[in-house]
Amino acid sequence: MSLKGRHFLSMLDLAGEQILQVLETARSLKATGALRAAAGGRGPLEGRTLAMIFQKPSLRTRVSFETGMTQLGGHAIYLAPSDISLGARETTEDIAQVLSRYVDLIMARVFGHNIVEDLARHATVPVINGLSDYEHPCQILADFQTIVERKGTLRGVKACYIGDGNNVAHSLMLGAARVGMHMTVITPPQYEPQAEVQRRAADAAQATGARIAVANDLAAAKGADVLYTDVWASMGQESEAAARKKVFAQYRIDAGTMKLADKDAVVLHCLPAHYGDEIDYATSRLPNSAIFDQAENRMHAQKALMLHLLGCA
Ligand code: CP
Ligand code: NVA
């Protein structure tokens, strides 16, 4: 099941087996990367170029993609929000057409998910969603790699996300459904994942037996093998941050939530973190915490993804 030439906009764009294939390539790259670098020589993506479009800020996504491309022998071009003013200076369609004449891959971090869909519709090269308001699938590849490192598997693992039913929660639910990982998303009332995502996750879960649930009560975190959280106000929701602080006050990972979960529960956060809000600093530094492994794995997982999309894996 080759991924050559495909777009990666959603976790549902990959079958469960394909997710596992990408993760296996990522594992191998991580294990042998240093050796290959020491051996020198030409990388598999020599002469290839990745265009990276950003409508929002980034540390991990930008640096992991750019460094990953360099390590594979290719080149990445950073296009800041002010560089191309996507949708204002020229249309998404024209940007997709023009970039496709120059580069081999396009990665985009955008507000509306329709923008990555438009890019994919009009590009003749693979388009990767580097985060939209609706999904953050590259993050979930790295998260899955991290869970496998700590728990040995995804299938049957009981993961619990606490916080806002946002892009990261959406991609976690859809990805979990694909690979047979159980996923409970706990949010305050009114902040649940979108109903459409809940339906699509439930549909996908039928094939794998994943139990996908949404709850408002923190007790649903009981016995979790993985505890995951993300910021209460995502990029673009800054004006709601103060109001959300009150609504979300209990929906956090701290000593109390750790007591509810399994004693060996892995703590995950996609970062950036707001310590004292969705996670406290002490919990983020426990041996159970894998937040910096997650950040590192962004690079390995995305290198693997790019190799697969370009048919070079
Ligand atoms: N987790 C993540 O996507 O981080 P950045 O926003 O820094 O890219
Ligand atoms: N939900 C967060 C994720 C940041 C990586 C946001 O969209 O801002």
Q: How is this fold's topology laid out?
A:
Blueprint: H1 16-39, E1 49-54, H2 60-71, E2 75-79, H3 81-84, H4 92-102, E3 105-109, H5 113-122, E4 127-129, H6 137-151, E5 158-162, H7 167-179, E6 182-186, H8 195-205, E7 212-215, E8 226-229, H9 241-247, H10 255-260, E9 266-269, H11 281-284, H12 291-309
Parallel strand pairs: 1-2, 1-3, 3-4, 5-6, 5-8, 6-7, 8-9
Phosphoric acid mono(formamide)ester is lined by residues 58-61, 131, 139, 270-272.
General description of the model:
The chain is an alpha/beta fold and 313 residues long. It is globular, with a radius of gyration of 19 Å. The site of norvaline has 10 residues, from helix 7.
For the sheet with most strands, the description reads: 5 strands, parallel
Strand segment count: 9
Q: What distance separates the N and C termini? A: 12 Å
Instruction: Record the strand order, biggest sheet.
Output: 7-6-5-8-9
Low-pLDDT residue intervals, each spanning 5 or more residues: none
Computed Rg: 19 Å
Q: How many DSSP helices?
A: 12
* CATH topology annotation of the largest domain: Rossmann fold
Small-molecule binders:
phosphoric acid mono(formamide)ester, norvaline
* CATH architecture name of the largest domain: 3-Layer(aba) Sandwich
Residues in β-strands, percent: 5-15%
> Taking all residues together, what is the mean pLDDT?
96
Number of domains: 2
Structural class: alpha/beta
- The CATH homologous superfamily of the largest domain corresponds to Aspartate/ornithine carbamoyltransferase
